Amino acid sequence: MQQTIDLTVAFVQDRLKFAEAGHDWWHIQRVWNNTKLILQTEQADHLVCELAALLHDIADSKFHDGDESIGPRVAGEFLESIGINADTIDHVRRIIHNMSFKASLGEVNFHSKELEIVQDADRLDAIGAIGIARAFNYGGYKNREMYNPKIKPKLNMTKEEYKNTTAPTINHFYEKLLLLKDKMNTPTAKSLAEQRHQYMEGFLQQFYAEWEGKR
Ligand code: ADP
Ligand code: NI
After folding, report:
1. Residue extents of the structural domains in the chain
2. Which residue's C-alpha comes closest to atom 8 of ligand 1?
3. How many whole angstroms separate alpha carbon 135 and alpha carbon 171?
């Protein structure tokens, strides 16, 4: 298993060399660490979870003209090239295809304990201090406004609307980040999410106070 993990780490680090800072190798490393933390209290296939964590953003559709098949395909081809068995590859591919917030807005017809764990691990990295940093980095990368009081957040967006939004970054908190704590699957992630969620609430209060020039 160690050799498989080492080869996968090297592959991912190379592929993500020029990635946006919210979706780079460090994001993957944090998600991998979250996965291992959750695995301490969950019964699941460790190899599947770790491979899915490492490969989940290898070719994110939002950086590939919306193509949602490319991530699972690139991951699968890599795993075949290092001789991983077909069942493991198939499971990792399905996890990658189904784990994103975007995917959860569409029709989801695959479930597994391993998907739940890696999805939690990824969602934990979207909230708290890191979540705030990632959101503004992504907004900057897309040249979005930080905040515009005239543009209200849009709840219950369809998958297409969510993909095509150009709203200010603060809206993303209401459209996704603040919703994540109630979507956690495992007890470990639920308890970590609680504290990270409070931190974001505090950040937003401070942000609005400063925006309005209050002392
Ligand atoms: P997924 O790919 O899991 O469906 P996203 O790509 O929307 O979900 O989210 C991954 C991360 O990218 C978010 O947690 C956030 O940090 C950043 N991000 C995505 N969309 C936005 C946005 N509209 N504004 C700010 N950050 C965003
Ligand atoms: Ni991710």
Report:
1. 2-211
2. 101
3. 10
Q: Give nearest CA residue, ligand 1 atom 14.
A: 126
30 pocket-lining for ligand 1 (C-beta < 6 Å): no
In CATH terms, 2-211 corresponds, of 3.40.50.1100, 3.40.720.10, 2.40.160.40, 1.10.3210.50, to 1.10.3210.50
Mutation pick for ligand 1 pocket among 134, 144, 161, 200 (CB with most ligand atoms within 8 Å): 134
Query: Given this model, what pLDDT does residue 97 score?
Result: 93
Give the residues of the chain that fall short of pLDDT 70.
101
Residues 83, 29: Cα–Cα separation, whole Å: 23
The reply to whether ligand 1 has any atom less than 6 angstroms from the CB of 12 is no
Instruction: Give residue 174 CA to ligand 1 midpoint distance, Å.
Output: 12
Interatomic CA distance for residues 149 and 169, integer angstroms: 12
Q: Which two tokens stand for residue 212?
A: 């309005």
pLDDT number for residue 59: 86
pLDDT of amino acid 164? 87
